[in-house]
Amino acid sequence: MKAVRFFPSSLVGLILLFLAFPIVVVFAVSFSSANYLTFPPPALSLKWYRVYFSAENWLAPTWLSIWVAACTVVLSTFLGTLAALGIARLPRPLKILVSGLVLSPLIVPVIVVSIGVYYAFSKYGLVGKPIALVLAHTSLAVPFVVTSVTATLAGLDPRLEQAALSLGATPRGTFFQVTLPLIRPGVLVGALFAFITSFDELIVALFLSGQGAVTLPRRMWEDLRYAIDPTIAAVSTLTIVFTAVLLGIAHVLRKRAEQNRTMAS
Amino acid sequence: MRDTITPGISAGRGAAVALAGLEKSYERVGAVNGVSLDIRSGEFLTLLGPSGSGKTTTLMMIAGFETPTKGDIAIDGTSVVAMPPHKRNIGMVFQNYALFPHLTVAENIGFPLKQRGVPKVERTKLVGEALELVHLPGYGGRYPRQLSGGQQQRVALARAIVFQPRLLLMDEPLGALDKQLRENLQLEMRRLHADLGITFIYVTHDQEEALTMSDRIAVMNEGLVAQVGSPEDLYDRPTSRFVAGFIGESNFLPATVRAMENDVVVAECQGATIRALCPSGQASGDKVTLTTRPERLRFADTLNGSAETYNRIAVTVTEAVFAGERCRYMLQAADGTVIVLKEPSSAAIRRRAVGERAEIAWSVADTILV
Amino acid sequence: MSELAQSPGRLAPALSMDSRRIVPILLVAPLVIYMVVLYALPVASMLLRSVDEPTWSLDHYRDLMSDTVFFNTLVNTLYTAVIVTFGSLVLGYPVALALVRTKKMAPVILVIVLLPFWTSVLVRSYAWMVLLGRHGLINEALLSSGLIERPLRLLNTPLAVYIGMIHILLPYMILPVANALRQIDPSLARAASGLGSPPWKTFLQVTLPLSVPGVAAGALLVFVLSLGFYITPAMLGGPRDITLSMLIANQVDQLNWAYAACLSAVLLATALIIIVACRRLPGIGNAFKMSAR
After folding, report:
1. Looking at residue B282, what is its pLDDT?
2. Which of A60, B19, B79, B294 could make a disulfide contact with C4, Cβ separation 3.0–4.6 Å?
3. What range does the domain containing A145 cover?
4. Which of C8, C13, C17 sits opposite B71 (nearest CB)?
5. DSSP string covering chain C, please?
6. What is the DSSP letter of A92?
7. H-helix or E-strand spanning residue B255
8. Over the range B94-123, which residues count as b (16 or more CB within 10 Å of their CB) and which as e?
C-alpha cells in the first residue's frame, strides 16, 4: 500500500542531516592535525587521541566517571528494581504518589536538583567526594531503572507466578526462579541507561565535584571554557562510540526479552 | 491444624473436596454467593456455567489464589482456607498454559519436583515418564515457544501431575484451541483421568465439553450451584429452567396443573392433557412450565405407542430446515408457543411442509416440570 | 468434614491478607526513604531559604518582582522555550511522519534520531561550537564559496542557542508525535483518498488533527525541558543571553542562596504549572515515559 506521504523526502533528509551532521563533525575534528578548532581539518592525525590517552588529567576523570557510574548503577538498579516490583502491587492512590516521587527527577529542572543537593551535601562536607556524586546521580538514574523494569513487568503474565505457587514454589522461590529471570532484561536495560545518565552527567557534577572528584564531563566543560583544543573532540568521539555500544547491547537485550514473551500458536 | 495436606484419609488416589457455604464478594459485588459441594474421591467433576457464574472464582478459592469471604474448603478432611497455595499440593492447569518461557519443557515439568527436593536423577526419570504419559516423548529439550498450542497444553498437564497430586484443577484449559484439537484432548484427558485415578475439577462454559468428559457436573449461575448430577441426570431431569435451557436445547411449555398422581403431574397445556415427571413430588401453584427436548419429540403419525405414555398436542409447521444429520422444525402451538422439533433425516421420512398441521407426540418420561 | 467447615462465618486469617499489603510497601520503602532524604528534602530545604532568610517572609519574592535582571532573564528563558518548541515542531513533524510511513528506512531514521538523543548534551553543544565557530564548517564553507568576506559571528548568539537546543530537543518531539501518528488508523487516509481528497488535503483534514495529542505531548515536553536548560545556552550563547538556570547557577556561585532559592522556586513552579495545566491532554503519560527513553 503506497504510503500517503506529504512532506518531500528531501526535506526529511535535510532534517536528518541536521540531526546527524554535528556528530559527524565531531568525529572529523577528532582526527584533525590542526591545533585549533577548524573545519574541515587540514590533515588526518591521531594526535589528539594520543594526548588523551597519555594525559593523567584526562584519564583520571575518565576513571572516576566510570567508577561513579558503576556505583550509581549498582545502587539505582537495586533500589529501582525493588521499587518497581513494589509499585506494581500498590493500590492505586499510593501507586501514583510513589511513582510521582520516583519519576520526578525527569521533570524537575536539573539545576534545581543540583543546587538543592549541593546545599544539603555541603553542610556535611561531602562536596569534592565521589560518594556525593554517586548519591546524587542515583536519584537521577533511578527513574530509568523503574521505567524499564515496570515496562517489563507489565508484559509479564501474572499466571506464571500463580502457576509457580500452585506447583509448590514458595513466594520467595517464585521470585527467584520465575519473576527475576523474566525481568532480568528490563533490569539490565535500566542499568545501562543508568550508567549512561551518570557517565554523561554534568550539572550536578559542576557543583558537587569540587576539587577531589572531577568527572570527565566536568573536565571537558572546563577545557571548553578555558582552552579550546581538539582533544575534546577525541574524548567526545570516544564517548559517542561508547554510548553507541551500550545502546546496541540494550537493543539486543530488549529483543531477547521479546522472544521470551511470544509463544508459538 | 496441620501445615500441609497429607493423603490417606480417603481411600483411593484422589482427594475428596468439601466446599461449605463458600462466598466471595468484591466490594459488595458477590461473585460466589453460597456454594456447597461434596466432590468425591477420584471423580471428574465439572463446574459449568456462563461467564460471571462464579465457577472460576470457586476454582481459584480451592487453589488458594482467592480467599473466601465466608465458608470453608476441606481437602481430605483438612480445612485449607488458611493454607497458602504453595502448600496445598494441588495440580493446576491454566487456560493459557502458563508455561515458564525461560525454562525448557523438561525444566518446566521438573519444576514442582525441584521445589519438593527430588534429586536430579529421580527428577529426570519422572519427567520422562510424564512426557510419555502425554505422548510427547523426547520433547524435553525444547522451549515452550517452539511448541504448538496443543503440545503446550499437554506439557502443562504433565507438569501439573508429575508430582502425583491427589487433586487436579483445570481452568478452561482447552479454550484457546480449535475444535478438532479440543475434541482430541478431551478424550486424552478422560483417559488420563482413568489412568491416574485422581480427582479432577474442571471449569468450562462449554456444555458439550462438560457432558463428554464429566462423571458429574455442577451447573453454576450467578454465584450459586443450580444443580449437581451426572450428565444424564442434568440432561434428562433438569430441576430448573436455567439448567434446562443451558444444557442442550429445551422447549418450554406453559401449563396449568389439574392433578397430581404420585410423582407425575397432570396438567392442561395447549388444550390437551399433558403428563410430566415431577421429581419433587409437588407442583407449587397453578401455572407451571413443562420442558422437553426437541429431539425427543416425534410427529405422531410416525409413532405406534399407547396413549398413556405419550403426550400429544396439535401444532402448525412454521419452518423446516434441513441440517445434514437432522431436520429441524419450528412449530407453533395453539397459544402461539414456539416448539422446536429435531428428527433424524432419512429419505424414508417424509419432510413436512411449512403451514402443514400435525400432531406431535413424546414420552411422558421425557417431560419434566421445572 | 472438619468441624471448622461448620462455622461458615469464619473469615480467612489476617496473615495472608496483610502480607499482600505489606510486601509492596516494604519493596518501595528503601527507594522512597532514599529519595526523600537525599533528594526531596535537600531540594525542599534549599527552596525554604527563599522564605526563611533572614526571617520568615516573602520579601525576597517581592524584591524579585521589581528585579529587572530576573525579569529579563525570565522573558528570555520563556521566549527561547517558545522558539525552540516551535522550531522542534516544524522540523520534527516531517521526520515523525516519515518514521511512521516508510517501512524500509524506518530503522535507519530511528538510529539517526536516537543516537544523538543518547549522546551527552555537552558533546552535542560542543559539536555546534565546532560548526558555528569562526573557523567552523559553516563559515569556512561560506568563505570558500565567496559568499562572505569575513567570518560571520554565529557562535555566542541567541541563534546559536536556538539551533543547539532544537538539535538536542528534536527527538523529544519526534518520538511522541510518531507514537500518535502510529496510532492513526491508516484506512482513514485511504478512505479520504478514495473519496477524492488530494494528499495535502487529506493530511490537513485527517492526519494532522488526529495527531494533535502527540503534538501537544511533544510540545509540552520540549517546552518544559527548554525552561531548565543550562549547558547549551551557557556554551553557545552570548554574555547577554542568560537563561534562568544560568542565573541560578551564577547566584549560587556568589553564595546568594536566598535569591537563588527564589529563582529556583519560580523555575520549578513554572514547570509544574505547565505540566499540571496540560495534565489532561491525552498522550502526556507516554510523553514522559518518552523522556525516560
Report:
1. 64
2. B79
3. 55-228
4. C8
5. --GGGG-TTPPPPHHHHHHHHHHHHHHHHHHHHHHIIIIIHHHHHHHHHHHHSSSS-SHHHHHHHT-HHHHHHHHHHHHHHHHHHHHHHHHHHHHHHHHHH-SSSHHHHHHHHHHHHHS-HHHHHHHHHHHHSTTSHHHHHHHHTTS-SS----TTSHHHHHHHHHHHHHHHHHHHHHHHHHTS-HHHHHHHHHTT--HHHHIIIIIHHHHHHHHHHHHHHHHHHHHT--HHHHHHS-TT---HHHHHHHHHHTT-HHHHHHHHHHHHHHHHHHHHHTTTSTTHHHHHHHHT-
6. H
7. strand B251-261
8. bbbbbbbbbbbbbbbbbbbbbbeebeeeeb
Mutate: best of B27, B60, B86, B87, partner A, most A CBs <10 A: B86
Domain annotation for chain B: domains and CATH numbers: 17-90+165-236 (3.40.50.300), 249-369 (2.40.50.140)
Gap from A4 CA to chain C (nearest CA, Å):
7
Residue A151 lies in a domain: yes
pLDDT band at C13 (very low <50, low <70, confident <90, very high): very low
- Residue A171: asked if its preceding bond is cis (omega within 30°), the reply is no
> In chain A, which residue's Cα lies nearest the Cα of B167?
A166
User: What SS3 state is found at B208?
Assistant: helix
Instruction: Report whether pLDDT(A16) > 90.
Output: no
Residue B7, pLDDT score: 43
pLDDT at A37: 63
Query: H or E element: which one contains A35?
Result: none
CATH code where residue A118 lies: 1.10.3720.10
pLDDT-above-70 percentage for chain C: 89
Residue in C5, C11, C17 closest to B20 by CB: C5
In angstroms, the CA C108 to CA C106 distance is 5
CATH for C61-291, options being 3.40.50.300, 3.40.50.10490, 1.10.3720.10, 3.50.50.60? 1.10.3720.10
Q: What is the pLDDT of residue C163?
A: 92
B92 → chain A, closest CA residue: A166
Q: ipTM value of the model?
A: 0.87
Candidate from A73-82, C30-39, C189-198, C243-252 with smallest mean pLDDT: C189-198
Count of domains observed in chain A? 1
Global pTM reads 0.81
Q: Contact A119/C31, CB-based, under 8 Å?
A: no
pLDDT value at residue C1: 35
Q: Do A4 and C47 touch (CB under 8 A)?
A: no
- Does B69 contact C11 at a Cβ distance shorter than 8 Å? yes
* A19 occurs within a structural domain: no
Q: Which residues contact B55 (CB under 8 A, 6 or more apart)?
A: B47, B48, B49, B203, B205, B220
Whether A264 is covered by a domain: the verdict is no
Mean pLDDT by 10 residues, chain B (370 residues): 42 82 84 90 94 91 91 91 91 91 94 93 93 90 90 93 93 88 89 91 92 93 92 89 88 84 80 78 72 86 68 87 86 87 82 85 82
List subunits contacting chain A, requiring 3 or more Cβ pairs under 8 Å: B, C
DSSP secondary structure, B327-342, as one string: EEEEEEETTS-EEEEE
pLDDT on residue B12 = 66
The H or E element containing residue B152 is: helix B149-161
Single out the residue of C79, C121, C67 nearest to residue C251, CA to CA: C67
Asked, for residue A125, whether it belongs to a domain, the answer is yes
Sheet with strand B338-344: strands edge to edge: B298-299, B357-363, B310-323, B326-333, B338-344
Residue at grid coordinates 517489563: A152
Position C151 pLDDT exceeds 80: no
For A144-158, B5-19, C112-126, C167-181, which range has the lowest pLDDT when averaged over its residues?
B5-19
> A96, A222 in Cβ contact below 8 A?
no
Q: Using the predicted structure, report yes or no on whether residue A112 has a pLDDT greater than 50.
A: yes
